[in-house]
Q: What sequence folds into this?
């Protein structure tokens, strides 16, 4: 079993999720574990600080919800992979976050479905 971060560009946003691969009956299968949200793709090379602050604020909370399935080493690997694509903001106190740049939460499944 191998857990990895999947980055997909869709509708002008970079969507981030965690998936795992494993071999079942000699074939490789991928399983989605959790969606970590999305961030708007910039027109320049760097993502604006406001968008990064909003994204990283919610990321830790979302990862806490799957703490029973992801150990500390894997969590660090996930955070490092994301930081390589979306740098952690430094000295971001006082930065105002516009509502449209705040992390979009993954949809929660309803009971009975």
A:
């Amino acid at each position: 079993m191998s857990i990895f971060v999947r980055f997909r560009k869709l509708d002008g946003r970079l969507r981030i999720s965690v998936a795992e691969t494993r071999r079942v009956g000699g074939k490789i299968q991928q399983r989605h574990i959790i969606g970590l949200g999305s961030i708007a793709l910039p027109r320049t090379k760097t993502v604006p600080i406001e968008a990064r602050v909003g994204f990283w604020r919610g990321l830790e909370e979302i990862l806490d919800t799957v703490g029973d399935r992801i150990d500390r080493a894997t969590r660090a690997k996930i955070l490092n992979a994301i930081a390589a694509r979306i740098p952690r903001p430094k000295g971001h106190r006082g930065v105002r976050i516009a509502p449209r740049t705040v992390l979009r939460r993954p949809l929660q499944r309803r009971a009975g479905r």
User: Anything to note?
Assistant: Residues 49-64 form the longest helix (16 residues). Residues 2-101 form one domain.
